Amino acid sequence: MVLTNSSLSSLPTYLMGMFQLFESNHQQMDSIRSKIFWRGDTEKFKYHMVKWEKVCVPKDFGGLGIVNTRKMNEALLIKWIWRLYEDREGDKVCELLKKK
Question: Which structural domain range is residue 67 located in?
């Protein structure tokens, strides 16, 4: 679980902070992460006792706390909207985005 959250979920963070990824990208990431989570280093099939959506629920709400990349992608993009909404003086990034 640590490998899944620390490496596989954080690799696309920069890209998700700039662009809305397609659903197929999220499905491919989920496929890779779930295979590593359930199988480990073996190629032998193992039964999944819980749906992947339940595994991605935060620990406080009964899940295992694996990062949901769809929600993370939306949250990172909303940070840009919030930054534009705040409209701080001298913020060069906001000025650039507004002109664009």
Answer: 2-99
The pTM of this model reads: 0.75
Half-sphere exposure of 56 (CA within 13 A, CB side): 16
At 56 the three-state DSSP class reads coil
**Span 54-96, pLDDT tens digits:** 888 888 998 888 888 899 999 999 988 888 888 778 888 888 8
Say how far apart CA 1 and CA 29 lie, in whole Å: 15
Compute CA 62 distance to the chain's CA centroid, rounded to the nearest angstrom.
Answer: 19
Calculate the average pLDDT of the chain. Answer: 84
DSSP class of residue 46? -
Domain count, the chain: 1
